[in-house]
Each structure stands twice: as structure tokens, then as C-alpha cells.
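[Meeting: bench + compute handoff]

Bench side (C.D.) handed over the final construct sequence. Compute side (W.E.) agreed to return the predicted structure before the next meeting so the bench team could plan truncations. Sequence as handed over:
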Amino acid sequence: MDSKAQPEKLPDTVAFQDEFTREFMVSPKEVKEGYYLFKSRTGGFTMWFPKDAKISNMFYEKHDKYFEALRCAGIREDENITYYIDMVYENRLRTEDIESDLFLLSADANYKGEYTKIEVDHSIIYFAKNENDISVNNKKNTDYKFFAYIKSKHSHQGVQFIYGVSCEDATRGCHIDVDKEEEKAKMLMKSIEFHD
């Protein structure tokens, strides 16, 4: 998409009204209700992207065609829920060392445990989840994390993917349907398609 496109002629969603995020969107047409098609700047992969999220240009990094890291976040105001997605894409031989990839992911997600292997058409998803207490001043809040290493079956491409969700305002509290959030995280992980 052209980031200079006139915002008033684009969908009234966070993803399209934010100039930086708009650069990653393939089209203003939804691929599924509430989601657009995102294309990485390396050209290495596409995925579904939530319409109410935006990509932080402060946490964006890219090196040639082999590395890209980004964070996007969104708020579901009506539910008092905030969420974020951290992704690191690599296209190099080191992605074949799954043990190392999972070790790094576990460190980032503060996790000690096993991963479940999920096979989809063109990739293998190594999935796990955990929760961390992020309460402040006796205001109970929990950060639920769903994370995976997604490895292409046909190339040296891989994506480290972390989806986290918690109450936006702990003083108001919120109800997080953990099963629903896990489903959402897995849907996003499965939507990742690698491109040569």
C-alpha cells in the first residue's frame, strides 16, 4: 500500500489510519473479518493482521532480506483488553537448529517447558503458552502469552512469534477468555505463509 494514500479514503481502522502500519498492508480489503493481509518488508512472509493494531516504528528493525523484527499492539476498548505481537523473522541456515530457536524463544517468553508440534501445509509450528503475574499496587493483572517458533518446511525461513494479552486498566479489571485468545493466537500463527 502507498503510505501517502489519503487516510480519509481508507478504512477507518487503526491499521490503515496509522501511516507506518499502512505501509505493510497489502490491501484495504479484509482477508477475514477484522483482519488485513500484512506483508513483511523483507518480502519473506505474509500473515493476517488485526485491524485495531499498529506497528511500532521504534521497535522495528530490518537487515537486508534475512532479518526483520517488529512489535505491534492493539487495544480492545470495549473489553478493556490490550494485546501485543512480537515477531522476529530470519532467513538463514541457523533457523535449522530448532533446539537453539526454542531455547531463545523460551528465554524471551520466560518459559520452562515442552512445545507442542503443529504441522500445517508449508510449515511446522512449535507452540507453547504461559502466564505471568504483572500486578501493580495490589491491582491484579495477568499477562497470558501464546508463543511459537514457526519454521518453513521448504526453506531456511522461520518466525519467532509471541502473542501476549492482559487487562488494559487493571483497576477496572477485565475478563480474558484464555481459550479464545489461544485460538486467536494459533489462527495468526497458521496464517503465516513464507515466500521465496
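W.E. noted at the follow-up: The first helix runs from residue 14 to 17. C.D. will use this when planning the next construct.
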